[in-house]
Amino acid sequence: MNQITVTLQPVGRRIVIERGATLLEAAQRAGVEMVASCGGMGVCSTCKVRLIQGRVTPPVETELEELGEELIRAGYRLACQTEPLEDVRVEIPPESLVAGQSLQVEGREGRVNLDPPVVAIDLQLMPPSLDDLRSDLTRVNAVLQERGLGPLAAGPRLLGALSQQLRQENWQVRLAVRREGEASGLVSVLPRGARLVGLAMDLGSTKLALFLVDLESGALLAQTGVMNPQISFGEDVVSRIAYANRGEEQRKQLQTRLVEIINQTLTELCQREGLCADQIVDVVAVGNTAMHHLFAGLPVAPLGHAPYTPVVSEPMNFPAAEIGLQVAPGAQIYLPPNIAGYVGADHVAALIATRSYLAAGRTALLVDIGTNTEISLIHRGQIYACSCASGPAFEGAHIHDGMRAAPGAIERVHLAEGQVRVVTIGGQAPVGICGSGILNAVAELLDAGVIDARGVLRAAHSRVRPANGKAEFVLADTTETAHGREIVVTRKDVNEIQLAKGAIRAGLEILLKEAGIPAEQVEDFIVAGAFGTHLDLASALRVGMFPTLPLERFHQVGNAAGVGARQMLLSRGLRQEAAEVAREVTYIELTTRPDFTPTFVECMYFT
Amino acid sequence: MNQITVTLQPVGRRIVIERGATLLEAAQRAGVEMVASCGGMGVCSTCKVRLIQGRVTPPVETELEELGEELIRAGYRLACQTEPLEDVRVEIPPESLVAGQSLQVEGREGRVNLDPPVVAIDLQLMPPSLDDLRSDLTRVNAVLQERGLGPLAAGPRLLGALSQQLRQENWQVRLAVRREGEASGLVSVLPRGARLVGLAMDLGSTKLALFLVDLESGALLAQTGVMNPQISFGEDVVSRIAYANRGEEQRKQLQTRLVEIINQTLTELCQREGLCADQIVDVVAVGNTAMHHLFAGLPVAPLGHAPYTPVVSEPMNFPAAEIGLQVAPGAQIYLPPNIAGYVGADHVAALIATRSYLAAGRTALLVDIGTNTEISLIHRGQIYACSCASGPAFEGAHIHDGMRAAPGAIERVHLAEGQVRVVTIGGQAPVGICGSGILNAVAELLDAGVIDARGVLRAAHSRVRPANGKAEFVLADTTETAHGREIVVTRKDVNEIQLAKGAIRAGLEILLKEAGIPAEQVEDFIVAGAFGTHLDLASALRVGMFPTLPLERFHQVGNAAGVGARQMLLSRGLRQEAAEVAREVTYIELTTRPDFTPTFVECMYFT
User: Does the interface ipTM go beyond 0.85?
Assistant: First the structure.
């Protein structure tokens, strides 16, 4: 086995390397730029990584020196000194990623020119005297003007804090100011030298991802994920909209729960990183339109019934204090524009993160798979977008033994010569099957001829058995699973996958038709999102979810929405671009297309 | 008696007319423009006034018809049909003043071009459909653009309210929007046809004046005055600053009490006028620098010690919600700039109200007398300003029998042939003496030779008697007063007046010196403020408080700061002008002038 697969976490990228290559080389070839101050000589510890799974070469002396025994026992290694001996899974801690690297997806991604809306201004003022009677604010504005910035705009509370801190700190402070038109919005008054940090958030229906970014270097300082507490009010956005529409109080409750968990998670992140809330001076949040509205506190009633129009599609900027987010007193929350009721700011952020494909004038598809799958087709500078109701099957819901992608979930299935081999997340005994597992299973069952073009399970296989008048396939029997119950694939499971992949494929086909091009003309097929990044491409092609294109045209880019959100923390230009992108998109409402239903029905079949 | 004095309330203007003239003619000659739709024919009731004091001709038939018996019993008359038979005091209700009239002071005052920052936009939108999937905000912005306005800027709370009201009101609402740069700040979502109202406030150390102004017509809708509740924390601003500096809580307390009484008074005004808080869509507040800071919640510590610099001298705009003012949800408070620690936004507002004197290129003095007296000298397009510590004598404080200008206060004193005649406010038996009374008394005593150039009372007069080793003058004896105690003028009282008038005169002299002109060159001498409007000019000249100029050069203009505040509700241009005025003023800090003390000492003498 000379081909070794290296999986890099948390960026979620995989690369196949030859045996003998180091982890640093693997990361470099995967387009993940790691810090390696000494150029791979092993004399700095900047390329530190943590081994999660798989065997590698033993630590060399320089690693023992640089890292110490304790870190090595915890799995830490220098990427430049470590060669994998088999397929490995490796975690790259944020500090080992170069500034701005975090801002790149899959090599093609252009760098972000650091031009953040919020910047630091270090002040050192002369105190007032009888010869200089200028007010505190006049004094500060004079310095801002010298530095090419407009006069401070702030409410009295912040101006009062500024005045008091100037006097306490001997007239030396650091200001965080937001460059807005001709004014400088005062965000925070900090001690000299304090780091300015931005908070980017991807507010998924299921999971919230929080990122802290150094606004001066662009470096990703920390990131974390947490479950969306709104789940207890409804598994999907449709049921949460219904809950919110019961009354103001219920809608407010959904918002409050969300903001509370964010505040709590942010507090923990800040403590871990030695930051205070006053240093979180800018916020970008993305999410689907429903999450966007619920987070901001906008009514969601219009999203609950046709024609599903958003209350706000425009980019929003509002004080973080308005919704009780505990960040710097003058910080604003920026929400990128929504395209439609079911194509939200998260999709715009993904378009921003993958903008290099657009910029090159290429024909590209961007697909973010979820309960609703948003698709954009970029062709000749035009963007066509739609949303398909692909359902929650890929999140493990509505599947007989379905579960989220968590330890013990079957993520790969191999069928060979009547035998079934399953691979689980974490390598544990299986407890269920996640989205990529069920997709993989269906593809394997198709290949093995166990299911036919209509999705019917044939009784020919030894693992197929009848159940309630229908057939089901036993993936793992009672002796194999962790809980001693069987894990099966039912006819209904197969049908759920057919509905899901049919909806996605139909959306793709309608967009291609709208642009008037055949699928073969698509040069880049970008698969974004957690599921999209972990799915087995071959399986997706096998079941017909995606059109058959050469594998090298596919790019599994991970959480592009999160990357876009982080990039927009760092660039005023990208926020501008987001507004333009959203304005220029041609949105296709599938439900109004007479050709949608026949296309959808056709796409449900396997071929 | 063919000369009759007509006092017009609440504008506080007096005019002497010939017997036979109507009250409408009196008002017109006084420069108070009343509504008189029928041109004085007595066939409309638009020139309605209320008689407070004095005899007039009996009601004619047309008045009985137009007003009805009940109103006439309450003292109401038509100004065009009523001739005074003796000195009268008349109240002009706000509705009888023409739109914009309220915005004029003393005839010379230029009209305000109606160009308010906050304007009404009536919307009538097409609801969303499958053919028109635009978001609610996009729909609204399209209309704004058609009308030459920028896109709405608002937080989610207001945008949510907009969305909900659009749906409830069948897509017809009235918006109040603030024209700010390229955006339209959403202030309030109202039913179609709702009046847009602005709140102007003059926040005096002693009294708060509130004015409601129709932002579309410019008409003054209502006004009221209320005592400043901060008085219980300190009579003057110096003691309130000291109180505020005890801690954050104390400073907050001063602000809270102020905002509470304003909210309460505003609620009453609104109820009276049938308005709701959402209709109060703009706020202008003026006050001295300390009141400005305490109202906004800025620290006042720097105002408490040399060099007395303000925290903010720039114009301020901030959400009314930040300080808890109960007006429309998106309303902002505009505070005009401060010039210095003791020349505040109220003086800037007075300069705006009296700007026609500046505009004409004339040489003018603007004097606003209070505990601190602010003075501006306008000469050749330049403004020189200073503040003099004139003390509280003119407010009746530090005077033996001093009191505020309230019923029973002696406001005029006549000394003739050894007899003393006093006139009180309201004509009641005297209970004390107010600022204009003590000024008048000192002038009379000087004329009668009872006090000499140094302010010493001579025992030659029958009413002079010794008291604690010093002389005092009995103005009213035990039989004359309401409380059966004497009312006297003491040596110390005279001395207080010397200190006050000396400080004011010294300020005037220093400014004239700075501009390099003699007093005679002053073409307009504008006396603003409550005391300035009621003082007896001849007395002020007699005691040497003002330089001797022909009486017609003096203009007692009333609450110019309040007028300026109201005008700034109606004009973006005037707010711009306020910023320019404040920037261009040459502020003279009297305490740093070596010539101040000798000038002050010299000015304390009577001549």
Answer: no
